[in-house]
Amino acid sequence: MLDIVEKAIKEALKEGATEAHATLRRSRVCEVELESDSISRTRWSSSRILTIYAIVGKRIARSSTRDLSERGIRKAVTSAVKMARVSTENPLWSGLPHPKPYPDVEDIYDSRIESLDVSEVVEMAKVALQEVKEYDIRVLVMQGRVSAGSSEIYIANSNGILTSDKRTSLSAIVVTVAKEAGEIGSFAHEYQVSRKLDIDVGEISRKAARKALESLGAKSIRSFRGSVIFDFEVSSLIFASLAQAYNGDNVWKGSSPFKNKLGDKVAVEGLTVEDNGIMPSGIASSKFDGEGSPRQRTLIIEHGILKNFINNTYTANILEMEPTGNAATILSVSPANTVVKPGTYKLDEMVEEVKRGLLVRRFSGIIKFQDGIVSGVAKQSFLIERGEIVHPVKECMISGNLYEMLNNISAISKDVEVKGIFVVPALRVENISIVGK
Amino acid sequence: MALEFLDIAGRAIEEALKLGAEYADVRFEQRIATQISVRRGYVESSGIDSVRGFGTRVLVDGSWGFSSVNETTKEAVFEAVRNAIKLAKTSSPVRSKRVKLADVEACRDHVVAKVGVKLDEVSIEEKVKEVLEADKVLRSYSPLIKDNRVIYNDQTFLKAFISSEGANIIIEGYRIYVRVYANAEEAGVLSPAYESIGGVKGFEVLKQGEHLKVAERVAERAVKLLRARVPKGGIATVILDNKILALIVHEAFGHTAEADLVLTGTVLTNKVGQKVVSELITIVDDPEPMNANGWTPYDDEGVKARKVFIVENGILKEYMQTRETAAAMGMKPTGNARAQSYAHPPIVRMRNTYMLPRDWKPEEIIKETKEGYYLKGAMGGQADANGEFMFSVQEAWRIEKGELKEPYKGVTVSGNALNVLSSVDAVGNDLVIGFPGTCGKFQAVPVDGGGPHIRCKIRIGGR
């Protein structure tokens, strides 16, 4: 397969490209979907996609194809070069990356996942259904999915980068709802994703079932302003939005309020965030990023001070910074694993200090990095009074501002949970507006 | 290519039946998509993506198996068939009920979408030029516009469907989708605005300069809202424009009438024949309007698609169905089975979902409103199967004694779709179908929607 990306580069240069990049991705996925306490659908899919970037001077274009025959490759190369020619110059283009040594990254490939038989994936789905049923008769599996995938990535560019990598992932998500005496609780979901064959489907199901039950008996509350504890999942949504703010692409384009803020205090002292592309078994860990640059660890916020942005070669050049191995493509930037330093609080200690507040396990709404607007419905939430959880709450709105919230964090949990690419603690934030009945 | 496909697909179906399938279908798809993304005067990224592949779906022992490949050799397609059979067989014991399919006519047809200017006959140069024009409109509107983007997408597609029941359908068409973003900035305050146009249309959309009008509106909105404040939260009387209504009708209401979700339990489960919203309201899901983004002459199960009256004068009439859900509910298929691509099995999806108009002129609704807000444009949000939703509104105007006062931004609306639609007391006469988008229920499919202006009560989130 490396010969295909090499060939694409040669063809592109021959056609008149001054630089070229090629990515070939082969992937297979086997998926079993759950619906209403049953398996509903199954899917097996294999695909191969070749993507070529042709650059003529400072004119850039992309072309992709699924046809990997000689003719198919040539056609894709020709259309990329042709499209680049009729495009405008990108005055900011500064060239593709050059080869650099790659880090060793552990545990991102597990041959056991690649060789899973479809019947084994079906078996995991069966366990997910059974565990919920056995946990409590009042809980139903609304939806769910077990998915096993493997991929191989081959990258080459005209500066001599030529590399490949194998990755696997296994994920399970279970969405439950509890019903009792005509009352339907708030949906609860729980998921795990791993690079290895080490997911405990039963545990995911039991957790999802417990969460669904806990939301039964919800009552409306009056509006107030108070402390909000964002459980791990909601915390991951907050950091997902924050990752957009320190994304170099949004910084240089001016849509991030973090531009011109390097070295400034942007959060409470207890907050330290890093972007880590090389942590063992990380969902976004790999040897190289989408442009073939080495992945790395990058300290973003240290004790509340903004230290760095994430960049690919293109955006790093514009910002006069160093690339951080965060290329999604040669033109776009995406976070790797977002790792937030744990704090000192146990979860129940976080609750104990709250006079009046809310524990929020699920949030359906917006967290806009551009202006920091946080607004949405708190689901799976619980009223806290005088240090104790009083009762589950019927959906209420919460609103605040992301950037103010960063400075109003009053507690960070000792435990962290892996939520996809986010490795995050729970957060307690003060002075949030809660709109009830 | 289509003929070559039909031959391979036919043989794949024979193979599936030989391996024990009760039913089998094969879908083939090829698509050439062009993307041009322009910002601040230059092409930032552009590309041509060529997609093709086979997806096959089999029913064995009352259980589904689906598989796809993007190689188009007979060997690869046969391997896909074998994998689908294996998945169906192994999952059959874990199914609570055997899948049955509602009977439909096995249609044979070849449909070609009618568009003005065929997209594969327009040069890349011309496409780039028009996108750059829209960018120019944005940039020249005001120096306060600090960032902007125009993203152009088009595609030329061919889809074919063959089944073991004898269906044989080929659909050819075009889609165009233009998104315009602007970000104004003043004294550290950012103000984003966004709008999109498109549908099953050709390059006439750009030739007629629609993208330039959109660019002007987006720029105007971004600048206008720079100094707008965020309103106080609470329940308010509001007039929703066509766009926000389209979003509520699709996201908060429409999904709850999709039969697969109805079966798992939504606010509309077991409510056919009951009054669920205001009697002023009729909501349809329509496969027809030729140029709407969700145009679906036949769905991805080969079913001839028909208009579904979900709600008529406030009464719930019908759900949207696939053959499987229709059989499970003892109802008729509607042609709502759609798949993102050949690589995905079809599930219940909306097409073009909109509310029918009544007799109020939009300006009269405003005039007859003592106190409230006029809400315009939406920027995404979320909804649940219980009808609870939360959307972000682009622009809000306070209404006092029938007049529009100052603008506000950062507004969200939320509530329960049934409550909100029950509170409707005025429905406008200005039906607009033309809010193309991509619906993301597990898979991304092109949809459209619309409606008139309406007045209702809704929860506003602000400060």
Draw up the topology in text.
The complex is a heterodimer of chains A (437) and B (463).
Chain A: H1 2-14, E1 19-35, E2 38-56, E3 59-65, H2 70-86, H3 111-114, H4 118-135, E4 139-157, E5 162-180, E6 183-184, E7 188-194, H5 201-214, E8 224-230, H6 232-245, H7 248-252, E9 273-276, E10 297-302, E11 305-306, H8 313-319, E12 337-340, H9 347-352, E13 356-367, E14 373-385, E15 388-393, E16 396-401, H10 402-407, E17 409-419, E18 422-435
Parallel strand pairs in A: 8-13, 12-18
Antiparallel strand pairs in A: 1-2, 1-4, 2-3, 4-5, 5-6, 5-7, 8-18, 9-10, 9-12, 10-11, 13-14, 14-15, 14-16, 16-18, 17-18
Helix pairs in contact in A: 1-2, 4-5
Chain B: H1 2-18, E1 23-39, E2 42-60, E3 63-69, H2 74-91, E4 108-112, H3 124-141, E5 145-163, E6 168-186, E7 189-199, H4 204-207, H5 210-224, E8 234-240, H6 242-253, H7 259-264, E9 283-286, E10 308-312, E11 315-316, H8 323-329, E12 337-338, E13 347-348, E14 352-355, H9 362-367, E15 371-383, E16 388-400, E17 403-408, E18 411-416, H10 417-422, E19 426-427, E20 432-433, E21 437-441, E22 443-451, E23 454-461
Parallel strand pairs in B: 4-6, 8-15, 14-22
Antiparallel strand pairs in B: 1-2, 1-5, 2-3, 5-6, 6-7, 8-23, 9-10, 9-14, 10-11, 12-13, 15-16, 16-17, 16-18, 18-23, 19-23, 20-22, 21-22
Observed structural traits:
heterodimer, A: 437 residues, alpha+beta, PmbA/TldD fold, 2 domains, seven-stranded antiparallel β-sheet, 18 strands, globular, B: 463 residues, seven-stranded mixed β-sheet
